[in-house]
Specification:
Length: about 450
């Protein structure tokens, strides 16, 4: 570091030295030379001062830069802390600023269990298992109020389309075009992810409730919901010329903390396929068996008309539901058209502090208050159901099935589920008689399910 006072003293000392004759060297300096030396020393002194000023300025600049760097470092650190405090990003929904969104969807259900039937009927029983559903798909929004949903099911070594729809929402009105459920039954419209038994009520499968290609409109306001649509057939039967109309009305008021549900539905299907036939039949509770003990066989039908009634209530841990459905078949040449009936009544209670979900006129996801992974056990629910299906009428002897069911459902988290079902099926006029010709007997079923979805 340059010391300015020391340089001044040195210059003064040199000035005095050169102003005095140097006798030992016998050197004589003239006045002009001395003046020139002094000028040079003054210039050097000035330059030294300039350099000292520049050095001081550089130090000040360094100090400011260090302060700026420190401030920036603190800002970056603060931003990192704030970012760490935010919820972790997920891939559940990917949104773009222009109104598009993409949400991957999927579900996997693995079922296993046993059936026990009278051996002399010739029906197979014992342990069986299957991948009941294995779906992948996506849903999201499109600018302008539009949306989409598309899912493919890979279960059973087959590829089948589930939902494939384009939607439009405006105020209280929702429009859907594509492959989707028509409006039959609370049980049918409730997602398989949220049902209380391993399979839906017997009449929903027996009467052929399924997704079909069509266009529908839903209107909801307060506790009222009205739905109607026109449909053809499902993706597997696009060669037919079937045409149908479906409608459903729901009143879903609140009574204190309790959620109530009252509904009715109408279905008409004009049958115009090469075979012109329908067939109503059903399995004994579980899907992994192919045995059916009630079956009308093929009926040469020109149309079918259905009427359904729905009722349900959710109050805290408790819920109850009941439905009845009448399916009338128009069979040319018969003096009286048969009307078949199916229905159920059920009740359930949570053994944990949880409640059954409900949304938009159907049962929805149960979300445990204390899930596993957050210090809790999840939810535990016990349910009982009486399920009845009558396929006897107007000379058609398809049989009667009365089911007495119980289920225990454990949900560790919102998106995982384990279930055990027991069913006792009592048959009258079963289509598979015993060796002695008996058509009234019982079948036992046990079903287990492991389920995950996203």
């Amino acid at each position: 570091m340059i010391n300015r006072p020391r340089l001044g003293v040195l210059a003064a000392a040199l000035s005095c030295t050169f102003a005095t004759p140097v006798y030992a060297q016998s050197v004589t300096v003239s006045a002009d030379e001395l003046a020139e030396m002094r000028a040079q020393l003054a210039a050097m002194n000035a330059r030294i001062g300039q350099l000292e000023d520049e050095l001081a300025a550089a130090k000040a600049t360094d100090t400011e830069q260090n302060a700026t760097i420190a401030a920036n470092t603190e800002a970056v650190a603060a931003a990192a802390v704030a970012a760490a405090a935010q919820p972790a990003p997920t891939v559940a929904t990917l949104e773009k600023s222009d109104g598009w969104s993409f949400k991957p969807r999927g579900r996997l259900m693995y079922d296993a269990g046993w059936t026990s039937v009278p051996s002399s009927t010739g029906a197979s029983d014992g342990f069986q298992n299957e991948v009941r559903r294995a779906r992948l798909g996506a849903s999201g929004d499109i600018p302008g109020g539009f949306g989409y949903k598309f899912e493919i099911d890979f279960a059973g070594n087959e590829v089948e389309v589930a939902d494939a729809i384009l939607t439009y929402e405006h105020g209280n009105v929702d429009v859907a075009i594509g492959h989707h459920n028509n409006f039959q039954s609370l049980e049918e419209l409730t997602s398989s992810l949220h049902t209380t038994f391993i399979e839906r009520a017997a009449f929903t499968d027996a009467f052929g409730f399924e997704r079909r290609i069509g266009a529908s409109v839903s209107y909801s306001k307060g506790p009222f919901l009205a739905q109607a649509g026109v449909f053809t057939d499902n993706f597997d039967d696009t060669a037919t010329k079937n045409r149908g109309v479906d409608a459903r009305f729901v009143f879903m008021p609140k009574s204190g903390d309790a959620q109530l549900h009252f509904g009715g539905s109408f279905h008409y299907n004009d049958i115009d396929d090469p075979a012109n036939t329908v067939r109503y039949r059903q399995r004994p509770l579980v899907h992994f068996t192919s045995e059916r003990f009630v079956n009308t066989g093929r009926l040469n039908a020109s149309s079918e008309t259905g009427f359904g009634l729905e009722g349900a209530a959710i109050a805290g841990r408790f819920h109850a539901a009941a439905e009845g459905y009448w399916q009338k078949v128009n069979i040319p040449g018969m003096t009286m058209d048969p009307t078949f009936f199916g229905g159920y009544v059920e009740a359930g209670v949570f053994l944990t502090d949880d409640t059954r979900g409900y949304k938009g006129g159907k049962f929805d996801r149960t979300k445990p208050n204390s899930p596993v992974g957050e210090g809790g056990f999840g939810s535990l629910q016990f349910n009982v159901r009486y399920d009845h299906l009558d396929l006897n009428d107007a000379g058609i002897l398809g049989g009667q099935q009365a089911g007495y069911f119980a289920s225990l459902i454990w949900k560790p988290t919102d998106y995982t589920l384990f279930m055990i079902n027991y069913g006792r099926l009592e048959y009258t006029d079963a289509v598979l008689p015993t060796a002695s010709g008996d058509t009234s007997y019982g079948v036992d079923s046990i079903g287990l399910r492991a389920q995950i979805d996203f």
